[in-house]
Specification:
Layout: H1 3-21, H2 28-36, H3 55-68, H4 73-90, H5 117-134
Length: 142
């Protein structure tokens, strides 16, 4: 998936969880950082969607952040929301992800193609949901 799809999906997940957890809206920025983080492995060629697209990386990051107290736990939690949202979307693509790499070679994949009509449809659906949830778009049923 492309950056804008990852960002809008991270926003959707953040807004949905916000109904329960009542985060300040500015924390969405940490969800955006989390949503972009896994693609830092783009420069590693064959390791893309393996090196940083797995649960172990997230667990290590969370362990370090929680143990060191570098940032408040709420920031780490919101970062995780973005990170996991990224994995979910990339798991829908034909390339898929290896969520337990390097320990397990199991791959999750779907049929969406990055930059093609299937991704644009996913983007539009997510955008519509964000607009509904945020109250920007009001739909009246008669």
């Amino acid at each position: 998936m492309q950056k804008y799809t990852h960002l809008i999906f991270a926003l959707l997940v953040f807004l949905l969880l916000n109904y329960i957890l009542h985060f300040p809206l500015y924390l969405a920025l940490f969800a955006f950082v989390g949503a972009m983080f896994p693609d830092l492995d783009l420069k590693f060629g064959k390791l893309h969607r393996k090196l940083l697209h797995n649960v172990w990386v997230l667990l290590i990051i969370l362990f370090v952040l929680f143990r060191t107290g570098l940032i408040d736990n709420i920031f780490a939690i919101v970062f995780s929301i973005g990170f996991v949202s990224h994995l979910v979307l990339d798991g829908l693509t034909v390339s898929g992800i290896y969520p337990f790499w390097p320990i397990e070679k199991f791959r999750i994949r779907g049929s969406a193609k990055t930059g093609k009509a299937s991704e644009y449809l996913i983007f539009v659906i997510i955008l519509f949901m964000v607009l509904l949830i945020s109250g920007i778009l009001k739909v009246y049923l008669f």
